[in-house]
Fold each of these.
Amino acid sequence: MERVEFELKEALARHEPPADFTARVMRQVRAAPRPSSGPWRWLAAGAMAASLSLGFFVYSERETLADQRAEADLILSLQTAGVKISQARDAVLRPRELQP
Amino acid sequence: MKAVESSPRRLVDNALQDPEAFGEIIDHHKSMIYSVAYNFFGNRTVAEDVSQDVYLELYKNLERIESDLHLTFWLRQAVTRKCIDYTRRLKHRRYQPLDEVVEPSAKDPSWDPMLAETLRKKVQALPKKMRIVVILRFQEDLKLSEIAEALDMPLNTVKTTLRRALARLRERVEELQGEMVYGAGRI
């Protein structure tokens, strides 16, 4: 071992914290929320997963309904447009047909 | 890592059943945690703040600790991370860089308190990564592979960092030794 390494070992020796250190940390620990225990954590995770799945199911159902409604609206609009185009064509052609 | 997983979890289990038993964990590791922070900052108040934060973080994450050996590993990682984070926080705050207390060591009669003090200051002036590598190597007596694991650094980076840090510190020791020899020669 080199001299500098030996000196570093001496210089960087461990130090003890103040005597009341543990008591002070424990006061803060008592004020902090208790760490959750295993079963409760799994239950919470399960509940969250279930609510997420339910939310996704409801969302996708709503999306499907909205899609169906939009499709129906589109078909109706196309039908209406078709009828109107026919009426317009009839209106344009009829006077010519009536001509002698 | 297998040894970490298979060792007993007595301290952690006790603390999970009874929060008051958390005090046992604090007592068991406080010297290591506090010393890393103290040797990093050279300031008792900051060292206490960092140590308290480490223990509070541990309390919140106690469930994740797999064994008492893992606990030591976790605490070592947490305190090094906290020290590096604190340097950012302290950047804009002035603090007394070193408590001017020279603690006598009974281990070795050739121990030179002035040299030790100068070396401590020199260590605290190193860049933060270099500083933590030196502290883990010489305070905690960790192997280079253990330092690499604790700091999540490649082994070769640890080796290079330590070599560079020692080169810087060696200069200072040689300077001081030269001064002492020169000084003694003059007398």
Amino acid sequence: MKKLKSMFKIHRIFIAQEFKRMMEYKGDFIVGIIGFLMIQMSNLLFLWIIFSQIPNLLGWTVNEVVFIYGFSLIPKGIDHFFFDNLWAIGHFTVRKGDFDKYLTRPVNTLFHVLVEKIQIDALGEILTGIALVCITIPKLGANLNIFRILIMIVLIPFITLIYTGIKTITASIAFWTKRSGNIIYMFYMVNDFAKYPATIYNRFVQNIITYIIPFALTSYYPALFILRGENSLFNLGLPVLAAVVLMGFGILVWHKGIRAYESAGS
Amino acid sequence: MKRKLKIYLPFINAGIQEVATYRVNWIFYMLGNALACFVSYFIWKAVYSSGGTDTMNGFTMSQMVVYIVLMFLTSTIIASDGAWVVGEEIRDGSIAMRLIKPVSYNATFLFQELGNKLPTEFALAIPMIFAVEVIRTTMSGEIQFSILGLLLYILSCIIAYLINFYFNICFGFIAFAIKYLWGANMMKNCIIGFLSGTVIPLAFLPDALEKLFLFLPFASLNYTPIMIYMGKYTGTELLYYLGLQIFWAFFFFALSKALWKAAVKRLSVQGG
């Protein structure tokens, strides 16, 4: 318990430090947030143009598709906001030998890496996601009750852990190969599949994004429950299970990786 | 000419060696981008089967598949990261090392990048073009390959690469003023993605927007080469778009020179 308290304290100190840094480069973070906002706008424009040509997408209405898209942005954005530092591990921290500094500190390395930085750019994703969900919810029909919305909110931290878990696993590969940035990138591109209802894909892709690289669990399945109240055990249980398994496996691989880590660079 | 080639050949060589070092990394990067193509494929397939028509804005489903594959290939061929290099070199001062050498600043980048790209481009282009032809032939039932189309596509890609290269150099100088290259670059990619038809073929936009975007330099990057390969531009239209590409290439070439002159005047490097 005492340890947990001290961890929170460390986290607070790191975040305060980050805010100081950000205040110094205000322009940077405005540029970053606008950049991420623009990416979302471009995706929405794409959806809007497509839906101006067709009545629905294989039975999905524009509001449902936008809801799934918006919902997928929230956990993704939260992971991006808090745990973006894992990208740096994969891209250059290990390769340049800078990882040594974490080993010399009296806190758990993974915890240290996770809390060290926050990525304010992610607000562009989180805000768009929240806005889209709020705009589409009233249009989705009356069978959407408070209970389901509460479940949705409870689910968000678990879904965030799916992202963090996958990122921890792929970043850890750098301990063996010195560099895994593009492996993380590849997994992130799989995440593109999560933007749309999974029924537009064929069986093979559906299985992959459900059971192997489970990004469909981050938006499509929870949305199925929220929108239609379908199959709650599967649609809610699987994301939670995946979050626990992936994060657990991530922690395991990370610590195995640290034992294999040999300092690099100069 | 021969003397020039001798000067810049080592830069090509350095580029080739650079890419050989990070080959595995490159493969994963490409796999990631290929996945994005699959997402596009599925979404368009769903759109076409929901739309109930065979042709949308002049594109059939098989043409859309060809468009997606060609977009992947063309984007890779014309990719240029001059903006990063310029920004980084000004920041860390290594630009000074380029200034003291009797070679053109832009040209050294150009040749280094060519070395970087050539091996990977051949490894990618040949199987991709083959795949496009197989898709086209099986989906439409007739052979549509034209050697002239391919040659014009290659020519158009080369011009497009030069536009992109000089545009990125210009952007690098400007982005340096913004300081946050990552954010600025993201905005740039996002805007270009839309204006160049990467996100959605320009033919799907409202008429007035389509006309405007076709004239802007960004359509010259991806859209023009692809339309040429697909045989959508013929006769005077073809000449017009190739001419427009050449115009934009010269425009950004001249602009990059002007910015370079202005930047060198203001440049101060501390340490080395």
Amino acid sequence: MKDINLKINGKSYRLSTNEDMRLIDVLRDELGLLGSKEGCGEGECGACTILMEGRTVNACMVMAFQTDEKEIITIEGLSNGEQLHPIQQAFIEIGAVQCGFCTPGMILSAKAILDKDTNPTREMIRQGISGNLCRCTGYAKIVDAIELAGKLLRNGGNNCEA
Amino acid sequence: MKKKGVGIGSTFYGTGYGNGFPDVSRAKAVLKEDGKVAVHVGATEVGQGSKTIMSQMAAEVMSIPLNDIIFICEDTKNMPDSGTAAASRQTYNTGNAIKLACEDLRKKVIENAFKELKLNSSVGLTLKNGEIYLKTLPSKNISLKELALCLLKNKELPLIGEGSFTAQTIEMDEETGQGAPYWPYTFNVYGVIVEVDTETGLIDIIKAVCAQDVGKAINPEMIEGQMDGGFAMGLGYSIYEDLGLKEGKMKNKNFTNYLIPTALDVPELEKFIIEDPESTGPFGAKGIGEPVMLGVAPAVLNAIYDAVGVRITQVPVTPDRLLRALKEERRE
């Protein structure tokens, strides 16, 4: 057992974890944060993508003990109560969600792209989400949505009509 | 050397179970006490958008805002069976059942309205924008919400409309090949330009277009999403995805070697929605779920043939398969 301190979506947690526990297990099984999905479990599909210290990681490839004193953002940390994050709003607006399994990871990869640059090229967007597999959408609407999200962020809100 | 080639792939596809097999969809439309309409239907939403387009259809028939439709699916206790979300059949088959159920409810709403309005008959009464009114004297009117309240008071709720749709198909005669195994058919065509690297065997898709017959587009944005998705899946099938089956065992069972196209592998697809309303379809609509992926592989393989003169007959066209085929071609 190892005790860890970590900050998830701005909230501090102190947890006792097994050595063989992965971050995805902590999130889903210990804390009930079911937004992050486990797809392949071997770091290939990106469904469990979360932000750790501002960078995208696959939560299935990070051991729980490695997250000690780390700051983590999951899909649950994006909206502000009922107010959706501009990226979430843009995904809905464009129709970038089909079955939805890749969506939480995809949105966090989008956040990592837009945190660096709110006006990325389509190529930069494609590069940034290339670690997130999607079987339904063909990615086109996802790229469109991230472009729109960038525009919303530049305008400082999530009003798609503006 | 890099060589360019152009290819097209055109398909037609019969949607539904087909071949005389009973293909039945059922639906129920229920007027609620707040004037909203609940649609109960056993049509599974798997991300294709059935909830959205079927709510749109119900809202259209009932002439109420989309937000006033309560769509209830995927709980077999509360709904009639509408068959599987398979065979590209939900838009056409279950769409028709929902349309029939809502038309039945609409009729019942009008019959009840004429009693509430104390008219001689229901002739000339219509339902539009949530109001039931007499066309010849619009001041004779009652809103759906008011009517629902009246019916609630008289203990006449819930008011239920029912619909059942069975597709018309006839089993093919094995001897003569005659019959009408499917209805309706959906048509499409893909066009691609590829660049083949004859040194590495790698194939690059430079440009791709798709024209998809949809009957009538209920939700164009979602149709585009289906086209993009079908294209990506078809592309994987054409040049990437190989299970590596050997004596019944899969060699490539991880995403490290079973390659699904990533955002970097899928080029932008130029999309054309072709509308030619199907007379038996709900508002003219047809299913496109499977058809959108069918034409991709033929188009890509034709383009490879155009580029390097080699006719490949096995998918996926992996680099080693293509290089082997080029080598054999040179030998002959």
